[in-house]
Amino acid sequence: MSKFLVAQEERNQVEELFKSCGQNSKGTVNVEQFEDALTKMKIKLPSALTRELFHKVLRLSRSRENELLDKNVEAELVDFDSFLEFANDQDTLVQFEKSSKVVFREKPFGFWLTFNPETNKVIVDSVSEKKKKEILLKSELYEIMDEKQEHHYVADLLVEDSEDHNDLKELYKILDEMTLPIQMTFKHEINRESLGILSEDEEWKLLNSDVYTKRVKKRQKDVEKAPVKKETIPRHCKYCPTPGTWRYTIHNLFENENYAKINPTFGWISSWIISFVMLLIAVSTVIFILESIPVVYHQNEELFTSMETVISILFTVEYALRAIACRNLYEYFFALENLVDFLAVLPFFIEQSFSLTEDGGSGAAFLRVIRVMRLARILRILKNPYMRAYLIVLQDTIRLSYHSFSLMLTITLLFVVVCSSLMYVVENGVQDDDGVMVRPIDDYKPTHFTNIPISIYWCVVTITTVGYGDMYPVTWYGQLIGALTMIMGLLVIAFPVIIIGGNFEEVYDQFQKKQKREERKLELEQDAKINSVPFSKVQDYFDDLNAHINKACGQSDENFKFFEETDVFAFIDEGYDTQEKIVSLMESGEDGLFFFPKDIQQWKLFVLYEIFGRMHRSTDKSDPFERLRKALYQKLQLAKPLSPRKSSAMLVGG
Q1: Domain layout of the chain by residue ranges
Q2: What is the rounded distance in angstroms from the CA atom of residue 305 to the CA atom of residue 298?
Q3: d(Cα 446, Cα 439) in Å, to the nearest integer?
Q4: CATH number attached to the domain at 97-189
Q5: pTM above 0.85, yes or no
Q6: What is the pLDDT of residues 332-391, one digit of tens each?
Q7: How far is it, in rounded angstroms, from Cα 417 to Cα 426?
């Protein structure tokens, strides 16, 4: 069908609609009928903006440049041709007025106010049906003028000494005492983001209420927290010195495995140093193990001694450089991970400082203990980024399993005490003439269960299924208790272990998903470098949605996010790692609901699908006003073009 025929069909549909709403054959409507016509065309505008739009179309039809404020607008009429001409004239864009003056001649005024502590403004929270034609929801009450033509700025009428400046009682009192008529000035910002709330869209009203509640809770938490002064200069860790100094460079070379990303010129040295230290730890550990074999040690004693000397000196130099370059030597030295490093280099100097014999005396025994301390070097492996990641998995598992560990420990202690006490009673035997406890059933051999602590040792060995065989019952009732101890012990330990295993599986699954997200992130970054039209990142898409919600709900805190990072990860984990994939999912309509991530709150999925999804869903071909609706929103600057990847269709806020 040609464009001419499409335009003619659209004109006929608008003419028919205006005739129906205006109840006349001319296709003219008054302001009330005009609002009804817009509603039937699914053009969502609040009553106050509809009246202003009516004025603009009316001025076009009468070829007037200025609006006659004293004119009785209720009696004026506009025809469908003027409306079509106004909407289709895309060469001249128009904006709604940013303020309005309303004269009140009776009380009550028909609106309710609230105070926004983030912007320090008094906002119209709700409006009566009668006043919706004049007052826009979410407008700022800016100025009041009484019958004496005296101007009162609302900001000056707030109670300054009240908590959070949130006391509107004084303002209400002043308004109540003023003599009518009163003129009030309201300021408002009309944009595509706020259009849904201004039009009192049911979904947007629910979202606005939810955002307001979450903002209040967030502010309460922020007030409870002590203010923390943020450093403007990024540091690698709390021991990192001031950036730009030689100490900062040395610290990062020895401590920061990601220094190559920050300083490509010298950062590669950091990777070499850390890898070399790991190699020294491995060699030192192998030497320590081989030294325990007498034949190997005696054949290579000089080699082992020389290698250990070199390794110890290198460790000492490395530790000294890290200590010199740290921010606070006292805190750095007594930190657990650094104290281990100190203990790892200490044995070498103790051996060199004392002349200890190898004759098996106390000096040799002390030397063996000191040498064992060299194994502390192996703990340095935990500083490796790869090992640290898995250590975090273990820490998270223990944290989640805290109650399971407590349960297992409590039940195990009770079980061990009871079983060991019973075994002591039945296997203690009798005392012979020498005062030794013997068991008559075992040829009067001394009993192993001489006291309860020793019986506890037997019980622990039994329930852990180790079974050394050094202690065992000989009486039938002792054997019965032993059998019950083995069976019940398995159950006592198994139940908490199952819970802990489940927690580990959950944490490790999240760890693997995080790794996949990082890999996919690198792929998208690589795509952005080589593709002229790169895929849009999911994070950027949800950042735009959060900014849209904050602006629509009057939220000035950029840190407030309706869609949180966990929600973004839920989509990425399901394979929706680009904006295009999410948009395609929402465009598929109700059939796509089954494929939305299950880990996201149902309320957030409702907001995503119902509010933002309808912005992307395909145009209803049976809707004759689709093109006209988009053209009008574009004319009023209430629409935003979609991504170039999609189409030239418009996104409308609401």
Answers
A1: 97-189, 246-383, 398-507
A2: 11
A3: 6
A4: 2.30.42.10
A5: no
A6: 888 877 787 787 777 777 777 765 445 444 455 555 565 666 666 666 666 666 777 788
A7: 15
